[in-house]
Amino acid sequence: MTTKARIRLAVMALLSIAVVIPVVAYGRGAAQPRNERQVDALVALGTGFTFQGRLTDAGSPANGVYDFNFYLYDALAGGAQVGPVQTLGDVTVTAGLFTVTLNFGDVFHGSEYFLEIQVRPGASSGTYTILTPREAISAVPNASFAREAASATGLQGVDVSVNAPAAGDVLKFDGVRWAPAAAGGGGLSLPFAATQSLAGTLFKVTNTNTGATASAIVAESGSTGFAAAALTGRITSTSPGGFSAAVRGENLGTGGNGIGVYGSQEGTGWGVYGEAPGGRGVYGASTTGTGVHGSSTSGNGGYFTSTSGDALEVAGPIRVSGAKPAAFEWLATGGNIAGSDTVITNPATDGNANAILIVTPLLGVANPHPIAVYWDLSKWRIRNTDGAAMVSGSRYNILVINQ
Fold first, then answer.
1. Which has the least CB within 10 A, 51, 136, 296, 342?
2. In the beta sheet, which residues pair with residue 50?
3. Domains and their CATH numbers in the chain
4. Rounded alpha-carbon distances, angstroms, from residue 248 to 20, 243, 368
5. For 301-353, how does the pLDDT look when each residue is reduced to its tens digit (9 = 90+)?
6. CA distances from 12 to 28, 41, 62, 65, 113 (A)
7. Three-state SS across 126-190?
8. Where are the beta strands (DSSP E) in 314-401?
């Protein structure tokens, strides 16, 4: 280039909200300033848009052909190039006006970009002159993105469903596209995992229905594998605080109904199972009621086992009750005395030949004779081992242990 000239470019994206604005001044010629540009406003761009420019040479409208390069960057200087370079050769300029089409791709989603323009005469095969500094195009992507969203054809490059929403619906990603869904449910893509730091409750579901089947959360698993769990609670700290719980059940009822934690099993397994290498597998506490209550119609209401320690440790009194109590008091009277024996009749011992009975005499009407207990093929009996007649009115404590 042998002379300097000032080039002013005006941009107009062919959108309904576009405006014409002067963008660039480029000079070649000894009498003109070098690499000047002026931006008076910003314009909304789409994926493909028309770029209209006005070129003056030495103050007069230019005529002829010019070559242009358009680059988009994410920084005023340096940075990374965004989208492909737009190289347009031999662009015809008539009476100072030219029109080209630019397309940097689907890159405008609210970020600020910077446009770099290079130019040379069309008849030249030399290098391009780079106009500096780059020009910020901050309002352009926002306007373009707003136009795209308003058309409901895509959000962040993801299609939007054509299904009409119902009142109160919101847009949710279903794994393929944005689709209308109820604000309070649905729209969760599985598998789902998330991590968040929060001092309070991170996830809460409330069911306000009062029906018998109105559950807040139901977890189900069809697994047949060992140690499978429909719902797992885990505290990952190796030094948790006192009474911290991986799974906690609370029933806020103030009456006698309701259960804090309920477990059931329809076969011969366990309704509730607890395990602790050095602590308590299951622990129950109550100030006035029952800490742990177990019941069964045909099996064991409670089962305790240990390979090295105590299977069951009791600190405090033991109470027995029910139709077949493990401990009861027996009174020897004329109706159950047979010679040296008193025949025991009780649901806990009747037909229970394999039971272990521990019998101790009570004060009152004393039986001064040594006693023993035995099974006579139909009933358990207490016998005076010295052959003396059983004392009528004598009483005995009996503890029944099933094997």
1. 296
2. 101
3. 7-148 (2.60.40.2060), 327-401 (no CATH)
4. 66, 10, 56
5. 777 777 777 777 877 777 778 788 889 999 999 999 999 999 999 999 999 99
6. 25, 11, 19, 20, 17
7. CCCEECCCCEEECHHHHHHHHHHHHCCCEECCEEECCCCCCCCEEEEECCCCEEEEECCCCCCCC
8. 327-331, 337-338, 341-344, 356-361, 371-375, 380-384, 395-401
